[in-house]
Amino acid sequence: MSQDYRLSRRAVIAGMSAGAAFSALPVGSAWAATPTVGFIYVGPKDDYGYNQAHAAGAAAVKAMGVKVVEEERVPETIDVEKTMESMINLDGASLLFPTSFGYFDPHILKEAKKYPNVTFMHCGGLWHEGLPANVHSYFGYIDEAEFLSGIVAAHVTKTKKFGFVAAKPIPQVLRNINAFTLGARSIDPTITVQVIFTGDWSMPVKEAEATNSLADQGVDVVTCHVDSPKVVIETAEKRGLFTTGYHASQAALAPNGYLTGAEWNWEALYPSLITDFEAGKTIPGLIRGGLKAGIVKTSPYTALVPDAAKAKADAVKAQFMGDGFVIFAGPIKDNKGATVIDAGTMRGQTDIELEKMSYLVEGVIGSTS
Amino acid sequence: MSAASLGLWTVPIAVLGGAIRVSTPFLFVSLGELVTEKSGRINLGLEGTLIMGAMSGFGVAYLTGSPWLGVLAAGMVGVIFGALHAAICSLPRVNDIAVGIALMIFGIGLAFYLGKPLVQPRAPTLPALPLGFWSDIPQVRAALQVNALFIVGLVFTPVLSWALANTRWGLIVRMVGDSSEAARALGYSPIRVRLYATCFGGFMAGVGGSFLSLYYPGSWNEGLSSGQGITAVALVIFARWNPVACFGASLLFGGAGALGPALQAVGVTSGTYLLNAAPYFLTLLILVLSSSSRRRVAGAPGELSVTK
User: Fold this and answer.
1) Domain over B3-307 is classified CATH 1.10.3470
2) Residues contacting residue B103 through CB under 8 Å, at least 6 positions apart
3) CB-CB under 8 Å, B267 with A194
4) Letter string b/e over residues A57-73, b meaning 16 or more CB atoms within 10 A of that residue's CB
5) Rounded CA gap, B44 and B101, in Å?
6) How far apart are CA B51 and CA A197, in angstroms?
């Protein structure tokens, strides 16, 4: 911080003449197609979670030499509209990634009508026909990675009881809980998953309390779906539990308990989107994919993962990467005993029915209301 | 005894553990605010002080490697915020509630700004005493991992109660709070006494904040406080300006906060949201039951702007 930034007169003159020479070079037109890209996060971008995953993607875009502007902690209110407008009008951004789920309706939709020449990419899969052409959605089938986490965890558990700290019972969260449970029970059908809903995306004290309650119940593997898994993973580590991560890798937080995790791979998706954008290719309205498309990934296995678990998880992962593997293959019952997917029905990842998930599968202890 | 055979017994154990874990910031903030209010001033800015304390305590612990230095630094930041509140309020015709709200927003904003580089690092945490050593049951052992600050608060509560009633400065604080004219007539400066009392309140709130970042949950994050500071200010009124009652109210709120997750953990899953709202419902209920239209709230300092 105490670096000396004073410049000598000579250095200033040299710099000015160099700048003048540089601006005379015909580089301006070559860069004209490169957009200034704006990234907007709902929380801090180093939260070991959702926002950090997006910020890693933004950093990858920056590494391409593209001008990136970022703003953190933008609430899902009219504030995000102001941020978008300032990025468009002051920074000259022509491509925006407002990453939080709640930015979409009405904020992005309003701005998209106002600025038809700006492209809006929203994370969350809310796109549907009839929206302005400059609005796109993208999301990943991270339940594939959750399924693999369940398989790995099933190999290390002794109590056969898992815990899942979740924010809210919305379809995406339920899908992760269910995939994690199905993965674990594909190895050992006696495993149960105890779910605790904290009620909101960032409730540090309640998340810690939930993790402690799970530990008291004899759970020995904990995972979560909250904005920043840091508190859950650290609390579980203090209680000596195994953990699987979410959003980004939390391996550094839990050297004695972290197994693997379900991570976003935005640092692969974002640069490829920018390349398509620069090349003038048509970007589809809805971009979805899982492990195969490289939109999600798993944390590297830690030394705690036994070889049998690696082999089993890698075999299923190979199927995801190949022809596909169906997680939600009937018959599947919910935890009240009703059949939710009939025998013989295969609900593949793109099945729109999965987007409406409102149940917890057999083996989950918990309720959606 | 295995975990499974404990069954529903884990709920009271978890609530007890939760009460001890969650109540500490409530306890510190409310004891500090109690002294401030006893001197006739209300400081609503303690939420901001709490968050500033959490951030600066974490930062100092991270940089020095000593969590206790972090606690001290958090307290000192609290003193600065308390002094600021007292200084502004000592100007003529300044409303202490408005100043408090301004300082709350200022403190939160400043903490988020300065705390930006502290989200990622990990700092050493405060020690805990394993008071559950006598039990073989892991749940009891976990619940009775009592943090050092809670014990400090536990010891301090009766001391404060005794000091307010029996010492010279306790009498001065109460006199200033009940009638500043009487204090002035006796040659005490209400402004100076309130300055000290507000600084003390700030110190305690800063320490309460450092508990959040240095023990439980034990990291700095912008969502760290979900209104503990402001809840603690309300707890003082709820506890009728009595330190021992503050202690009880803090435990009650801590335990009520632990009830929701604990019940979900044993499989009682209906009405999750209602259970999460339990502490607030409880407050309303007790305030309604203990209210009276005929007399002033017992124990309320006479000079306090909210009860005048």
Assistant:
1) yes
2) B43, B44, B45, B48, B49, B81, B84, B85
3) yes
4) bbbbbbeeebebbbbbe
5) 6
6) 25
- The rounded distance, in Å, linking the Cα atoms of A359 and A178 is 9
Residue A168 in contact with partner chain B when CB distance is under 8 A: no
Q: Is the pLDDT of residue A11 over 90?
A: no
- How many C-beta neighbours within 10 Å does residue B124 have? 15
Whether chain A has a CB inside 8 Å of the CB on B262: the answer is yes
Predicted local distance difference test score (pLDDT) of residue B281: 79
CB-CB under 8 Å, A205 with B223: no
Site from B23, B139, B266, B269 to mutate, A interface, most A CB atoms within 10 angstroms:
B269
DSSP category for residue B36? H
Q: Is A335 on the interface with B (CB under 8 A)?
A: no
C-alpha–C-alpha distance, residues B200 and B195, integer Å: 9
- How close does chain B come to A8, measured CA to CA in Å? 32
**Strands, E assignment, chain A:** 36-40, 68-71, 93-98, 119-123, 135-140, 161-166, 192-197, 221-225, 242-247, 258-264, 286-289, 296-298, 328-329, 332-333, 339-341, 346-347, 364-365
Domain ranges of chain B: 3-307
Higher-confidence position of B274 and B186: B186
Contact B216 A230 (CB under 8 A): no
Q: At what angle do helices B243-265 and A204-216 cross, to 10 degrees?
A: 60
Give CA angle at B51 (B161, B19), nearest 5°: 50
CA atoms within 13 A on the CB side of B303: 23
Q: Are A115 and A130 in contact (CB under 8 A)?
A: no
- Residue B80's closest CA among B58, B101, B107, B47? B107
Of A214, A262, A109, which Cα lies nearest the Cα of B138? A214
Mean pLDDT, residues B253-261 taken together: 83
State pLDDT tens for residues A311-321.
999 999 999 99
Contact: B265, A217; criterion CB under 8 Å:
yes
Interval B115-135: pLDDT, tens: 888 888 888 888 888 888 888
Query: Residue A30: its pLDDT value, please?
Result: 35
